[in-house]
Amino acid sequence: MTRFWLGGYGPGMDGSADGIGLLAGDAGREATTLAYRGVVAEAPSPSWLAQHPTLDVVYAALEGDSAVQAFVRTGDGALSPMGAPAAVGQYVCHVAVAADGSALVASCYGDGRVVRLGLDADGRIVPARPDAAAELRAALFGDDTDPDAPTATPLGDGVAAVDPYGVGGDRVSHAHAAVFLPDGRIATTDLGFDLVRFWRQSGSGLVLDHEVVLPLGTGPRHMVLHPSGHLHVVTEYSCEVFTLAEASDRTWSVVSSALSSPIAQVGTDFPAELARTRDGHFLYTALRGSNTIAVLRVRGGGEALESVALADAGVDWPRHHLVHEGKLLVAGQRSDTITLLDLDERTGAPLGIRHEAQVPTPTCFLPVR
Fold first, then answer.
1. pLDDT category of residue 357 using cuts at 50, 70 and 90
2. Is the pLDDT of residue 144 over 70?
3. Who's near 187: CB < 8 A, 6+ residues apart?
4. Does residue 121 carry a pLDDT above 50?
5. Residues contacting 351, CB < 8 A, separation 6+
6. pTM of the model
7. At residue 113, does pLDDT exceed 90?
8. Phi-psi category of 204—alpha, beta or left, where left has phi over 0 and alpha has psi -120 to 50?
9. How would residue 28 be classed by pLDDT, with cut points 50, 70 and 90?
């Protein structure tokens, strides 16, 4: 049976979800129907979910509570809290877990923090030192500097985010997602400052390695690592996908960019998630606004993209989607629905809506392992 943990927004974030939910499909290898089976773990607005690489442990970004929490699987379709929530930063919206299960990185939209937390052998979150926040504030700002200054927002581990364009005003740092790279470094997006940052891990936390500056006002949001080693980044404000590649000196740079769709409306459409097929031949991004799914074909050795299709998502405000067994699952945040779309294996294009189900304010799917 195909099953998914489901993240969602609760009353504190203008939603109706009461915690992590469960979607279950019919028996067989492929899902053709999905039904909401209720809450499996109560939690306030678990808007993003991530799986431990080897253990039956799920990590949730509790967005409204500025915390992350671990949940362990305790039954066929049940999760239980594994320790108390760990404070990270304002409006934490994404969690990524290291391939070796040693750490997680939380990205915080509200204050731009990028926070690494250690994980123990059982998958529990290792609490940060209680004095770490005070040390960070002193290291960044001293005693007389306003910590809310828009051009210097605190990140994790003693690094200040500075607007590369020096625009100031209401431009502030908005960390949005992280990806662990094969060499142990971590890439993160800053939607507010149009940056992709690359970090090295040290015994004391994260150390900024270098930054890639995207064009002003693009708004990098989510990323996907391609099998070729390229990093694809979708931008929320300019409706583009940028492709980054690593050079021989281990620095990254932009090698190409493409519109998510030739008819995407900048200022009306706002791309959300970026997902790929397992073989890496196609990428999918959802355009909130027109409520469509844009399909891009990956060309060359992974360095070039070509827009090939645009299809109805079947939901209102498609917040998240993923490719699963030749189908696309789409979460409609505002319609309280999810859809299951068939995909053409040859062209990558959605063939139509196979199934629709009612769910409370969905924001994230995670396959049950």
1. very high
2. no
3. 178, 179, 181, 196, 197, 198, 199, 223, 231, 252
4. yes
5. 341, 342, 343, 344
6. 0.92
7. yes
8. alpha
9. low
Q: What is the pLDDT of residues 60-75, one digit of tens each?
A: 999 999 999 999 999 8
Cβ neighbourhood burial of 106 (10 Å; 0-12, 13-18, 19+): buried
pLDDT of 116 higher than 90: yes
Per-residue H/E/C for the chain: CCEEEEEECCHHHCCCCCEEEEEEECCCCCCCCEEEEEEEEECCCEEEEEECCCCCEEEEEEHHHCEEEEEEEEECCEEEECCCCEECCCCEEEEEECCCCCEEEEEECCCCCEEEEEECCCCCECCCCCCHHHHHHHHHHCCCCCCCCCCCEECHHHCEECCCCCCCCCCCCCEEEEEECCCCCEEEEECCCCEEEEEEEECCEEEEEEEEECCCCCCEEEEEECCCCCEEEEECCCCEEEEEEECCCCCEEEEEEEECCCCCCECCEEEEEEEECCCCCEEEEEEECCCEEEEEEEECCCCEEEEEEEEECCCCCEEEEEEECCEEEEEECCCCEEEEEEECCCCCCEEEEEEEEECCCEEEEEECC
